[in-house]
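Forum > Structural Biology > Help requests

Title: Can anyone predict the 3D structure of Glutamate--tRNA ligase?

Hi all, first post here. I have the sequence for Glutamate--tRNA ligase but no way to get a structure on my laptop. I'd be grateful if someone could post the structure tokens.
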Amino acid sequence: MTKSVRVRFAPSPTGPLHIGGVRTALFNYLFAKKHNGTFVLRIEDTDQNRYVEGAEDYIVESLNWCGIPFDEGVGKNEKFGPYRQSERKHLYKQYADELIEKGHAYYAFDTAETLDFHRKDHEAKGKTFIYNWHNRLKLSNSLSLSEDEVNAKLEAGDDYVIRFKSPQDETLHLKDSIRGDIKIDTNVLDDKVLFKSDGMPTYHLANIVDDHLMEISHVIRGEEWLPSLALHYQLYGAFGWEAPEFAHLPLILKPTGKGKLSKRDGDKLGFPVFPLEWTDPKSGDVSRGYKEDGYFAEAMINFLSFLGWNPGTEQEIFSLDELINAFDLERVNKAGARFDPDKIKWFNHHYMQIQDNSNLAIAFKNSRNELSEIDSQYIEMVIALIKERATFVSDFWDLSHFFFIAPDAYDEKASKKALKEGTADILTKVKELVNSIEDFTVENLQNTVKSWITSNEIGFGKVMMPLRLALVGALQGPDVFDIIYMIGKTETSKRIDNLISKSSA
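Reply #1:
Sure, ran it for you. Structure tokens for Glutamate--tRNA ligase below:
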């Protein structure tokens, strides 16, 4: 790759960053790092009517939490700033004017009422109204009006937009790094608005101008922008600029595989679609986030990397550095990628196992009032025993509560299965054995109790099931001898006595 790689993620601050946006940012980041390039964050806030307070900060916080921070953007290495389009609006008019001078764009004075009339008239005739070569000379614009008429309207302050003049009877040959060669008949293209009556550019003009001025080499964006590719190619040609390489990522589909993933799908099926929790500044409604739901950023990034990309191997677990080394746009699929809520849980379970237990202990301790006075090292030891069955920190209490508090009730089905005639005598003997061990280790506990069971030819189930029931309150949990060692002789004796007392009552 000869030219310096510069990619950009350019979200609009109209609300929280959707998981699809995170995937787009991730692929840009991976591509940039793979080629020792620059990952730029640009805030495309030209639509001030849809601007939402706090959304820009949310975007930055999300990228930082995900571990894919931008190299260049608002307040950071501002080589090509400003990076908010609203602060660049003084730039765009001159480029719109340049297109008019070159004959690639024109003023259009049509009122909203006029355009609405034409749309409805076409609909009544079973047609679709397209503002382009076949009707623009019949409408109110600088192509159909005289120069004097145009100047009079401009001087009078009449509202106008600036439209791109799409060519007639041409075939465009476009190239996309993911989708290959694309042919477009220009006769089906409309004359898109480039500059609005409110003095702000549309996405199309601002996007092209900014990408050019910021020296963006590759535009990696969502599939929803594919219909705009023809216009964007034409704009680069009209300005006489070299176009960047384009790559349009596949859609992220609903878990059913049909249709684009939406917030409604997450609400309905019980999973977040945003990286961080979001509180709507107007309604106060709170939307769940992956971070607050207990997901690790590494799990989410690993999961998202496989939504539309495949390394070509059987490997599924990738560190961020491994993703950077393996990533290639040629291995990004054209077809939509189905969002699987269970798969991201699978990734989270994996990353749970490699987390530092001391960090998990802090998170666990902070999540439960019952643990506030418990020694952190003890909590770490507990986590080491139970985390292989956990997907989230929120799972820890159900998996470990018996390490901290004695059971106050016993599972009914488990009791029927474990408690038999003679159980009280067996548990009393086990209690004596536990208390007799001087060098109190898991290994000595195991050897002492198991040797007694074997020498007395007692079925292991007759001993181990009621013993577990006494310690846990149910037939679940890690190794019985690990539990006994952790809670100690005195607590073990109390729990055995309690079960004997309640079962004989």
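The chain has four domains: 1-72+250-347, 90-195, 355-395, 412-504. The two ends are 80 Å apart (CA to CA).
Shout if anything looks off.
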